[in-house]
Amino acid sequence: MPRTITLSDGKAIPALGWGNGSGGLNGKEDPAIEFGITALKAGIKHIDTAELYKTEVATGEAIKQAGAKKDDIWVTSKGLSAAPEALKENVKDRIAKLGFKPDLLLIHNPFVPESGKIAQFWTLLEDLVLDGTLEGVSLGVSNYRPQDLKAVLDVARIKPVVNQLEYHPYVLTHLQPVLDIHAQHGIVTEAYGPLTPLLRHPSGGPIKPILERIAGRLSKETGKEVDAQSVLLLWTIQKGVVAVTTSTKVKNIEKIVQVDTLPDLTQEEIKEIEETGRKVHFRNYKEHMEKDFATPNLPEDL
Ligand SMILES: NC(=O)c1ccc[n+]([C@@H]2O[C@H](COP(=O)([O-])OP(=O)(O)OC[C@H]3O[C@@H](n4cnc5c(N)ncnc54)[C@H](OP(=O)(O)O)[C@@H]3O)[C@@H](O)[C@H]2O)c1
Predict the structure, then answer these.
(1) Is residue 7 part of a domain?
(2) Probe ligand 1: pick from 76, 77, 192, 208, max atoms within 8 Å of CB?
(3) Quick one: pLDDT at residue 24?
């Protein structure tokens, strides 16, 4: 059974997701279908797509062509590039493109609503749940900073169940005010870019040797090939955070699926990764979270 995380509305989201919005997949239908099928056949149970990625049709197609039952696969979409008066039509378009209602629908970033209209936009989205258009669909946000979350929570009849943002050990110090709001309101953190420390940081930074050491221990104990990337994903989901990663390589897709079968990290290991990561600030996707949300005075590396 895949690890799941329970959302505040009671639904269980598979803790590991495969996204079709990055690398060679973003904006390209055919690879999103081809690798979507590969991912599903390998055992992925959660696909992350978006209006922006132009991969919603491909997501539905991949599920169909893989012979999977939609009910067994969690699908998140994001979007809503519409003006408020066109929101209902936009939402219907999301559903039409996928061929089903998504399990979770996110506002892609705080700049989707017009300036100053974050609360109003959320209210309109809630109305679509209440009028049945989005019945059964969980609602969430993405890249929401403390001020954005507060604007929504001040008016929410339905609280966002998740906030999807770049999350890994090197943004923990910066994200603390966001994570505090999540904890207070039962909002689950969803990580995109969870492998940034290993893939995008120039040296890997101070957690790299720790992850490699733990990968060595797990490889020895399980007899499986466990890499530092797998340890970082395991750390993420053991923090209670949904990890949305991706790959177009069969071997790496299989490793993502394998993370679910690995034994838990020890509490000491989880703490060591976290405490070391907190001493650094390094973010890959800066355009939303670093605007009007002061970054900590920390080095990018130690
Ligand atoms: N809400 C937002 O604004 C937002 C922003 C960005 C992303 N996202 C979502 O999050 C998804 C993932 O984002 P991301 O690409 O930034 O995630 P990531 O997990 O940080 O990086 C994914 C990359 O890791 C590589 N990889 C995976 N397993 C590996 C392994 N075992 N060893 C070495 N490399 C490995 C893959 O490359 P290979 O193909 O070479 O394996 C892939 O390109 C996106 O597709 C999208 O759905 C959302």
Answers:
(1) no
(2) 192
(3) 78
